[in-house]
Amino acid sequence: QVQLVESGGGLVQAGGSLRLSCAASGLPDSSRAMGWFRQAPGKERQLVAAIRWTETYYEDSVKGRFTISRDNAKNTVYLQMNSLKLEDTAVYYCASLRYYTNTGSAAAKYWGQGTQVTVSS
User: Fold this and answer.
1) Does 34 score more than 80 pLDDT?
2) Contact between residue 46 and residue 37 where contact means Cβ atoms under 8 Å apart
3) What digits encode the pLDDT tens for the residues 6-28?
4) What whole-number distance in Å separates Cα of residue 17 and Cα of residue 81?
5) Residues 6+ apart with CB under 8 A from 19
6) Are 49 and 57 in contact (CB under 8 A)?
7) Is the dihedral of CA 47, 114, 87, 64 positive or negative?
8) Which of 39, 60, 110, 111 could form a disulfide with 96 if both were Cys (CB 3.0 to 4.6 A apart)?
9) Mean pLDDT across the stretch 44-67?
10) pLDDT at 31 over 70
């Protein structure tokens, strides 16, 4: 049984930082592409970062501020978020991806439960 468990969300002031973690279990292959999505109220869920081997993808609005990484020994994927803005407020979801493209299209096979990130002024 596959489980993805996110942690690290919370309330932070604009300009601050948070690190999200996604602990995975039951995935058959550590090389599987992994991603972080976010969904703000009234908006569609959007891929913000993805990683496959050493290749990474970032949505334009987070480039230079967010960093996705993985520790295969711990089966954990991270999203380091710096210089947070009010518009980064959303529920962030970790996902095991079937695929993703460099234009941000992606299909997830498994989802975590989500973790709330709230950025205040």
Assistant:
1) yes
2) yes
3) 999 999 999 999 999 999 998 87
4) 5
5) 8, 78, 79, 80, 81
6) yes
7) negative
8) 110
9) 96
10) no
- 100, burial (CB in 10 Å: exposed 0-12, middle 13-18, buried 19+): buried
Residue 24, strand partner residues: 4
**Side chain identity at 33, as an amino acid letter?**
A
Query: Which residue bears the tokens 């439960």?
Result: 113
CA 64/CA 28 separation, integer angstroms: 31
What are the C-alpha distances in Å from 25 to residues 30, 72, 96, 114?
10, 11, 11, 16
Tokens describing residue 29: 């292959």
| Percent of the chain with pLDDT strictly greater than 90 | 86
109: how many CB neighbours lie within 10 A of its CB?
A: 13
DSSP output for 85-118: -GGG-EEEEEEEEEEE-TTS-EEEEEE---EEEE
Amino acid at 12: V
